[in-house]
């Protein structure tokens, strides 16, 4: 397997001057916590920075791309592009999931496939790239990875999984559907919520996200997928 530095150089023409920034971007909190004596930095601060530059670049792109769309439509489209699920997909597309450093517990519990972790990883990488190469380098990278998907129209349709689930479950009559927070984890500034969907007081699926709304949508999506398999 190629090293991360080789992959970035070959696939995207990116060579970091400050290798420590790249290393930090790919270090999850679980790994840093398991190696506290080494005082390893994790990627949460870079994630914060990457989120900001991502929002800016995508906002400008949409503003210029769709001069006749109203603010509300632009906001909805942007939210679909920068949502956790989309960013996790970009991480996998770039092969970043193979390189993220996770703690043993997180690794065993399937963290390498968790959308929350992979979405945060993508943002942390953008933050590291911004610090090392500047905003033009970030924009160039997004033009290679994200914008082609937008150009294909992959984010034009916003799906409300909660509404879709309700419609499917209530097709033969009313059922009681509720969403309950079952777990909260992480620091106050970066909480992760886990939510379960209950149908007539029976849990049928669960999901996680940076907000309760995100977690509810993830749980509803999982429920729909399970129903389609039955």
UniProtKB/TrEMBL annotation:
Pfam families found in the cross-reference section: dsrm, Ribonucleas_3_3
Principal localization?
cytoplasm
Molecular function terms in GO for this entry?
double-stranded RNA binding; identical protein binding; metal ion binding; ribonuclease III activity; rRNA binding
Q: Where in the cell is it found?
A: Cytoplasm
**Any one Gene Ontology biological process term?**
rRNA processing
Protease as a keyword of this entry, yes or no, is: no
- Required cofactors, per record? Mg(2+)
GO CC terms? cytoplasm
Tell me which EC number(s) this protein carries.
3.1.26.3
Q: Does the keyword Metal-binding apply?
A: yes
Catalytic activity, reaction form: Endonucleolytic cleavage to 5'-phosphomonoester
Q: Where does this protein have coiled-coil stretches?
A: none
Q: Identify the keywords attached in UniProt to this record, alphabetized.
A: Cytoplasm, Endonuclease, Hydrolase, Magnesium, Metal-binding, mRNA processing, Nuclease, RNA-binding, rRNA processing, rRNA-binding, tRNA processing
**List of residues binding Mg(2+):** 47, 120, 123
Tell me the protein family, please.
Belongs to the ribonuclease III family.
Q: Which PANTHER family match?
A: RIBONUCLEASE 3, RIBONUCLEASE III
Q: Name it.
A: Ribonuclease 3
What species is given as this protein's source?
Streptococcus hyointestinalis
The lineage is:
Bacteria, Bacillati, Bacillota, Bacilli, Lactobacillales
Which gene underlies this protein? rnc
């Amino acid at each position: 397997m190629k090293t991360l530095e080789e992959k970035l150089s070959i696939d995207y023409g990116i060579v970091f001057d400050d290798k420590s920034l790249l290393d930090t971007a790919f270090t999850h909190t679980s790994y840093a916590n398991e190696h506290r004596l080494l005082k390893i930095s994790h990627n949460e601060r870079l994630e914060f920075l990457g989120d900001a530059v991502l929002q800016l670049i995508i906002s400008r792109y949409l503003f210029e791309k769709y001069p006749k769309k109203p603010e509300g439509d632009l906001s909805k489209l942007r939210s679909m592009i920068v949502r956790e699920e989309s960013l996790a997909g970009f991480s996998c597309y770039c092969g970043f999931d193979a390189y993220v450093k996770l703690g043993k517990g997180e690794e065993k519990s399937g963290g390498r496939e968790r959308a929350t972790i992979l979405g945060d990883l993508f943002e942390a990488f953008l933050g590291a790239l911004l610090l090392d190469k500047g905003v033009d380098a970030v924009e160039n990278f997004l033009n290679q990875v994200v914008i082609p998907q937008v150009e294909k129209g992959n984010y034009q349709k916003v799906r409300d999984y909660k509404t879709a689930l309700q419609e499917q479950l209530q097709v033969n009559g009313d059922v009681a559907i509720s969403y309950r927070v079952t777990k909260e984890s992480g620091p106050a500034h970066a909480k992760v919520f886990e939510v379960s969907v209950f149908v007539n007081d029976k849990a049928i699926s669960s999901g996680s996200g940076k907000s309760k709304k995100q977690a509810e949508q993830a749980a509803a999506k999982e429920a729909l997928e399970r129903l389609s398999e039955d």
